[in-house]
Amino acid sequence: MMRTFSRWEIKYRLPVFWYYQVKNAFAPYMQPDKYTMLSSGRKYFVRSLYFDTYDYEAFHEKENGNYGRIKLRLRTYVQSSGPAAPIAAEIKTRKGSMVNKHSAFITYDEYKHFIEKGRWPHENSPILEEFGRLYHIRHLNPVTLVQYYREGYRSKMGDNVRITFDHDVSSCAGRELFPEKMFLRPHHPGKIILEIKFSGEKPVWCMNLVRKLGLTAAANSKYVQSVQAARYDVVVPAAVNYDDFTQVRIFKNEGLNKEFSSRFRGRDLGVLDSGKDL
Fold first, then answer.
1. Tens-place pLDDT, residues 90-133
2. What b/e readout covers 71-108, taking b as 16+ CB neighbours within 10 angstroms?
């Protein structure tokens, strides 16, 4: 099964007490989605395996604010491997706050084949074909794992607004989706990530509520934070400080202002931008 869509995404970082205030304010307008309803504790598990080059080009493109960024990942919604594990191969592109996501579900055997051999046993969709092409042309490898528990809601207002609260976001270096051992590092202890997602025009009722609550949007790339947490060698040492209270590293963008090759940019989505019907 394939899915493809375009939408706007706006992110906010909330302390716990503010999370409850925001959730209560949205409650009259939203209802839990089916995944949240069926999950224990009304939160479902999400784990992603991200791919990048040996010199972390995707990481630096995001840090430099490059336009038209491309990200590849494998995603699952279970913690244990096995034939029944739901897994998706995803290509995500971003232009400002506009996100295009192309996703194809794969079997566990197809996932294992790709991790071991670097190719799909059968490229039976244009998304898998493009995923494999980008993997090889950019010389990508799996680099980090990110996981969290998501609370999802959909609008009661007859529009396509979706909001999610991501809890306990953490990450580690990773080469596969189901490692035997992980040393996870939290991204923002005590914080919950709110994402507001919609296509088309901004929903007036939602933006009015955001202004009333005094929310301020914040860049919050889980992949970038996973590299900062798991691969200290990738971050310029001068850009790292410590928060004396939390003993958590704080990474400043000004120390990361490097220029990296963009030789593939603009022609990396040959299949997906070719007009094929996905």
1. 999 988 778 999 999 999 999 999 999 999 998 889 999 999 99
2. bbbbbbebeebeeebebbbbbebbeeeebbbbbbebeb
3-class secondary-structure state, position 226: helix
pTM: 0.82
| Nearest one of 157, 151, 93, 103 to 125, comparing CA atoms | 103
Number of H helices, E strands in the chain: 7, 12
- Cβ contacts of 183 within 8 Å, gap of 6 or more: 172
| 30, 21 Cβ separation under 8 angstroms | no
Query: Are the C-beta atoms of residues 30 and 156 closer than 8 Å to each other?
Result: yes
Q: Give the integer Cα–Cα distance in Å for 60 and 41.
A: 37
Domains (ranges, CATH) in the chain?
2-256 (3.20.100.30)
pLDDT tens digits for 170-228? 999 999 999 999 999 999 999 999 999 999 888 999 999 999 999 999 989 999 999 99
